[in-house]
Automatic annotation (TrEMBL):
InterPro entries: FAM3 (IPR039220), ILEI/PANDER_dom (IPR039477). PROSITE patterns: GG_LECTIN. Belongs to the FAM3 family. It is found in: Secreted. This is FAM3C protein. The gene is Fam3c_1. It comes from the Eukaryota. GO terms for cellular component: extracellular region. It comes from Sagittarius serpentarius. GO terms for molecular function: carbohydrate binding. The keyword ATP-binding does not apply. The lineage of its organism: Eukaryota, Metazoa, Chordata, Craniata, Vertebrata.
Amino acid sequence: NISFSPGKTGEPLDTKFFDMWGGDVAPFIEFLKSIQDGTIVLMGTYDDGATKLNEEARKLIAELGSTSITNLGFRDNWVFCGGKGIKTKSPFEQ
């Protein structure tokens, strides 16, 4: 599950969900690439959010400020708030 909002207003722009167990990672990667600088990004997983994550997807999420995405494994739960263009790690991740 993913949602993003402009940093200035916080109004939701778009929300999507992706099947990261049985689905294709390509639409998820394209969605991540479409996020504009200054956008707040909220992500959360349940059941399995890691099986289909490849190196490119993990790198794109890390660029949003995630430090845990590289260690996300099978059936791990994960919540994250970051931003496109962030220069540091996000303090909002568990």
